[in-house]
Design a protein that fits this description.
By secondary structure, the protein is mainly α. It is built from ten helices and no strands. The longest helix has 17 residues.
Length: about 170
């Protein structure tokens, strides 16, 4: 089991993340690579470097850092975010089965995460499994939108989601 990341290092990473400019990730990547040089095996550093490359549109590079971060021992919310971002990156690279595997793992570990459910649906759609993707989004709506208008139709929404899921040949 890896040693816990030093709180001061986590704060440093947080500061770099907060200062990033999504339209110009080069300064953030440079700053994170300097931290990486000091802490090459830290899972949080690996994750943040991967995320910076991902934001910069360098998915192949990002995927490698995400893989290393996952193997180095992430946990908690950082694990959830890494699995989501890794799954999204794999989808962008056209690696749909791997994307769904990462997101399936995230769903198993974090079943209440709305963001994981949305990205899972997106990867299902990208993999040509639109029925399952719509079913997932319908269930997410039924679970999370608790207004009188939607509650009135909740059984129908869930029934239609179940029907659509039954049409999915990839599951």
């Amino acid at each position: 089991m890896p040693e816990p990341t030093d709180p001061a290092l986590l704060e440093r990473l947080s500061t770099l993340f907060a200062a990033r400019d999504r339209d110009d990730m080069a300064p953030t990547i440079r700053a994170l690579l300097a931290v990486y040089a000091e802490h090459p095996d830290d899972p949080h550093v690996l994750y943040e470097v991967g995320g910076a490359y991902d934001t910069a549109g360098e998915e192949e590079t990002a995927a490698g850092y995400y893989e290393r971060a996952l193997h180095a021992g992430l946990d908690g919310d950082t694990l959830r975010r890494c699995l989501l971002q890794y799954g999204s990156t794999l989808r962008n690279l056209g690696r749909f089965d791997e994307s769904l595997a990462a997101l399936d793992r995230a769903l198993a570990l974090f079943p209440a995460s709305e963001s994981v459910r949305v990205w899972h649906a997106l990867s299902l759609h990208a993999a040509g499994r639109s029925d399952a993707a719509v079913a997932e989004l319908m269930e997410l709506a039924a679970d999370g939108i608790r207004t009188p208008d939607l509650l009135r139709y909740e059984p129908a929404i869930r029934g239609n989601a179940e029907y659509l899921r039954s049409l999915d040949t990839g599951s």
